UniProtKB/TrEMBL annotation:
UniProt-listed GO biological process terms: D-gluconate metabolic process; pentose-phosphate shunt
UniProt subunit comment: Homodimer.
Pathway(s) it belongs to: Carbohydrate degradation; pentose phosphate pathway; D-ribulose 5-phosphate from D-glucose 6-phosphate (oxidative stage): step 3/3
Top-level taxon in the UniProt lineage: Bacteria
Organism (species): Catenovulum maritimum
List of residues binding substrate: N108, S133, G134, G135, H208, N209, Y213, K283, R310, R470, H476
Residues in 6-phosphogluconate dehydrogenase C-terminal domain copies: 201-494
Catalytic residues as annotated in Swiss-Prot or TrEMBL: K205, E212
Keywords: Gluconate utilization, NADP, Oxidoreductase, Pentose shunt
Stated name of the protein: 6-phosphogluconate dehydrogenase, decarboxylating
Enzyme class: oxidoreductase
EC number of the protein: 1.1.1.44
Any one Gene Ontology molecular-function term assigned to this protein's record: phosphogluconate dehydrogenase (decarboxylating) activity
Amino acid sequence: ELCQIGLIGLGVMGKNLGLNLADNGYSVAAFDLDAEKVQGILSQDEQERGDKPARITGCSTFEDLLSNLQKPYLIVLSIPAGKPVDIVCGKLLELGLSQDDIVVDTGNSLWTDTVEREKQYHGKFIFFSCAVSGGEVGARFGPSLMPSGDQAGWSRLEPVLEAISAKVDPESGLPLVNNEPGNPVTEGEPCAAYIGPTGAGHYVKMVHNGIEYADMQLICEAYQSLRTALGLTPKQIAAIFREWNKGPLNSYLIEISAEVLEQDDPVTGKPLVDVVLDVAGQKGTGLWTALSSLEIGSPAMAVTASVYARCLSSLKENRVKASTILKGPEVTYVADSEKEAYIARVHDALYCSKICAYAQGFELMKTAGEQQGWDLDFAAIAKIWRAGCIIRAVFLQSITDAFNKDKGLANLLMDEFFAGQVEKFQSNWREAIVDGVRLGVPMPCFTSSLSYFDSYRSETTAANLLQGQRDFFGSHTFERTDEPRGQFYHLNWSSPERDLVRIK
Ligand code: 6PG
């Protein structure tokens, strides 16, 4: 019997997506260039299904894959972003695809590549994209999915994607989880929503990852502040994170940070975090978010700061050398009687900075969406991030609520709830930063978030002086506060009269 879905690429993500599809009743033809990976998914399926019939057909070539598939084809790619996507699409075209066939790219592709590919394959087959978040476990038991592209593609994919996605309890807004093979969660609201025309889904996923970078970096700064100022052990900080996880900071990233901090190294018995080299990797999506924010002029300083923090971490050799030359302040631990208040201040700094990071990410998507004509639904985007994805958190429900109240909300900080939260906690946020600065703790993301907040809430900034400087050395002109926008002036700085010239 022919299979309903073809799957190309059986790395951890592909394999788990395949098993997830099978759990949800879809027959899958699976192919990878590496025959061992094909064997891998087949044996995993065999192990999990027990005496039930096989749900996955292993294929040894592209031709074999197509000959095992129902027409029109529905082919899911789970392969590295970039060239491999073009190569595989080219190969499939060569073997014969038709207008109704759909190829779905689930990788972390650059959104502009997706737009190009859709154009390139238009009329030949439907090139559709479905960005996936949630790592291996998400892929296996329910990821958050950000599909976009051709409407005909979406109509056919909608039931499939909704079935395999993570689910949320509509009452509580909390994830409905069952990490048990063969028993997928079928109730609740699916974390899959049509994002918009081609490119939109990958853009939104890119910003998801940018926010993920910021969220992770902020947690790292909280950890480092607590460790430096209080001299706590990783396990003690894990316990604090576990407490925080009961409140508004409740999130997958706080939870796994506590787990990482609790872990001992199996070799030395020391806290694992102390033997992990402090050089951060990155695969590019944070950088793309930062670049896009710079390009379109929508500040996402928390993302840029976290990308730079990873870059700085990579300068290990230089840092080791610099640490012997550049001295900072002497660190004395905070007094015992002050500890609790200090921890509360760091909590609030993390919370307020996190609000800024998300506000930046959502404003970035809004600006990009307007430029591209995407008409993004931010309440729906926040909703599908409530479960399955890496940034899943209780917090996302409040973001959904904010956009449900005001679809066109310019910035999350302007929502009544978030404005109230920042007002309530900002003095602690400021003090945590002052304390950290005094102790010499690097906090690029905490500090940039506070600067963003202080800039965003300012009616006037020092850009008036800046315009004066530009006009002085380059006759770049300026507008006046007492005239309508669009009327430019230049002051003759070099003439004795210093007369004002109105630029026509
Ligand atoms: C997700 C993750 C996933 C991946 C990141 C990691 O949403 O499931 O974001 O896409 O883990 O790309 O990125 P870095 O390697 O750049 O940290």
